[in-house]
Amino acid sequence: MDINEIIQPENLVYSKTKLLTNKVLSYCPGCGHGTAHRIIMEVVEEMGINSELIGIAPVGCSVLAYEFMNIDMIQAAHGRASAVATGVKRVMPEKYVFSYQGDGDLAAIGTAETIHTCNRGENITIFFVNNGIYGMTGGQMAPTTLAGMKTSTSPYGRNVESMGSPLKITEMIAQLPGVYYVTRQSVHTPTNVRKTKKAVRLAFELQKQNKGLTFIEIVSNCNSGWKMSPVKSNKWMEDNMFPYYPLGDIKVDGKLVK
Amino acid sequence: MGELRLMKGNEAIAEAAIRVGCDAYFGYPITPQSEVIEYLMAEKPEERTGMVVLQAESEVAAINMVYGAASAGKKVMTSSSSPGISLKQEGISYIAGAELPCLIVNVVRGGPGLGTIQPSQADYFQSVKGGGHGDYKLLVLAPASVQEMSDHVKLGFDLAFKYRNPVLILSDGIIGQMMEKVELFDPIPRDKTIQPWATVGKPETRERNIITSLDLDPYQNEKHNQKLQAKYLQMEAEETLFEKIDCDDAEFIFVAYGCSARIAQKSVQIARSKGIKAGLFRPITLFPFPSKEIASLTPQLKGLLVVEMSAGQMIEDVLLATRKTPQLDVQHFGRFGGVVHSPEEVFEALIQKFNIA
Question: Which pLDDT does position A6 carry in this prediction?
Fold first, then answer.
């Protein structure tokens, strides 16, 4: 059978959302970023809000998110995505605004901006992809690196005595009255993808209702930085990351549930 | 005739911001410029014009809020004083790189470090030579009166949008804090025009807009830099502003901007009263610098005295401007670190530096 006979509308079982460009992803094969991008853009397409949406890309692996998401986007300085998002939202409160940030960006260099943006209860959505490592710069220790975890700047394992403990920033910001919805999800299995997608949709719906800040952490793998195969990295994530960063809702309807 | 008021320079900046139809101000308190945000908050601009005013958690956050709001194509500004402006430099570099319009006000105080809250002009290099990383320029306006604090807000936004480039008002603690009569311009309604490049949400009818300063390909980044440089050349050709006082017959000319120009203007009077033909050349734009105009000052000129409240910064641009006439004597005088020179000190410096009998 010729391939052109197979490529027919009736044979279509899956298609990429038109809100992702055709640009080849810059992420390592096996990385969760691509799935996270797809989920967000699928929800945006389903809700039909792409013409009212502005995204903020950080510095880190997802610095080029604007190359892949087919929407208006701004690339922010390292750690400042939520301040940039604040600026955008304050002058266009009727639009949807999100930032997409990694752990180094959001929980190390951008901690002040993260906490104060959350505390002001800006009506934006923050997507926080936590893989416990600095991926783009080559696998250095992140604020969320687990105790004992080896990275290029903690080659003998993270020593919490001298390097501090992994920061549960999601639990921290959940305490703030301006934050309305906080959840921690993953994208490494179909079940988790479905749960994350539901959370993304809820976050955008709450943003529309001006409920306050919505925050979705996605615990993800970094097979390159962790120096594992993609499959092994996902297993390692389940065994090591999830016990410290447990999945599930943390704050719903403005109330802590955990 | 516009409305007349007696105002502080900082208040004039804030009132002019509301009147010019500024969409948003983001700032963080620091002496000697806190009156800008205090005045704005007291005026309830969200009721007067719909302008957003937000006190940020830091100068770093404030400049990045400016970056975000400017990406939406809005008229947006921030203000601070020297240490705070240092903190903003990364954001300013991004804004210049991403070609966004915005207005930044520096009410300069003495440095380095925490320095003093007293006035200074020691941030000249930072303002006109880059400040942050990379090959970029700000359009720099230097008001010498409360009137110009107001006027330069309007001019600054016009230039920022003409060039899609950040504009800096380089003021100082004297101009910011002193009270003078100011004629305010009539309010301009906020401009609702959607800029074609702005990130406001992508309709089906156009390609997506991206605001970024990232070009991983060095050849692309070089092209982008060449585009920026072409813009700066155009600014040099079209936007240079200056003022000449008593220069036509002058043998000695003070070159000074901002409050040093005000002081030197008095020194000109003292010199003239003693029969010395002195004049004042005041750059109003510091970038673009009025190099050609300084190079073509009167043929009878014997000396230039650059007066600035710094150890000698603008003098480097004056020396560059006069490099083809090496016989011309160019000297510097200035108190610094927060100390303000008096007109008499400046006059005495003229006498001593040029051995005027």
Answer: 85
Nearest to B199 among A54, A80, A112 (CB): A54
Interface test with B, best of A22, A26, A84, A118 (most B CBs within 10 A): A84
CATH class of B3-238: alpha beta
Is-same-fold flag (B3-238; B243-353)? yes
Assign domain B243-353 to a CATH class. alpha beta
- What residue spans define the domains of chain B? 3-238, 243-353
Q: Is the pLDDT of residue A1 over 80?
A: no
Give me the residue from A72, A90, A96 closest to B199, CB to CB. Answer: A72
The continuous run of DSSP H or E covering A31 comes out as none
Angle at CA of residue B62, ends B153 and B184, nearest 5° = 20
- The residue of A62, A64, A88 whose CB has the most chain B CBs within 10 angstroms, and thus the best one to mutate to test that interface, is A88
- pLDDT for the residue A253: 98
- Residue A139: which H helix or E strand, with range? none
* A84/B102 Cα distance (integer angstroms): 14
What proportion of chain A, given as a percentage, has pLDDT over 90? 94
Considering the domain boundaries, does residue A18 fall inside one? no
Residue A224 located in a structural domain = yes
Residues of B whose CB is below 8 A from A85:
68
- Token pair in block for residue B104: 């930044």
Give residue A2's pLDDT band: very low, low, confident or very high (50, 70, 90): confident
Instruction: Name the residue range of residue A139's domain.
Output: 25-256
With respect to residue A15, please indicate whether it lies within any of the assigned structural domains. no
Residues 87-106, chain A, touching B (beta carbon < 8 A): 87-92, 95-96
Complex confidence, ipTM: 0.96
CB B175 within 8 A of CB B144: yes
pLDDT value for A7 = 85
- Establish if A26 touches chain B: CB-CB under 8 angstroms: no
**B122 confidence band (pLDDT: 50, 70, 90):** very high
Nearest neighbour of B68 by CB, restricted to A72, A86, A96: A86
Tell me the shortest Cα–Cα distance from B57 to chain A, in angstroms. Answer: 7
The count of structural domains within chain A is 1
Looking up tokens 């005088």, which residue turns up?
B333
Residue A205 inside a domain? The answer is yes
**How do residues A204-241 score in pLDDT, each as one tens digit?**
999 999 999 999 999 999 999 999 999 999 999 999 99
Beta bridge partners of A251: A182, A256
**CATH number, domain containing residue A220:** 3.40.50.970
pLDDT in tens, B238-257: 999 999 999 999 999 999 99
Q: What are the phi and psi torsion angles at A158 (to 5°)?
A: -70, 115
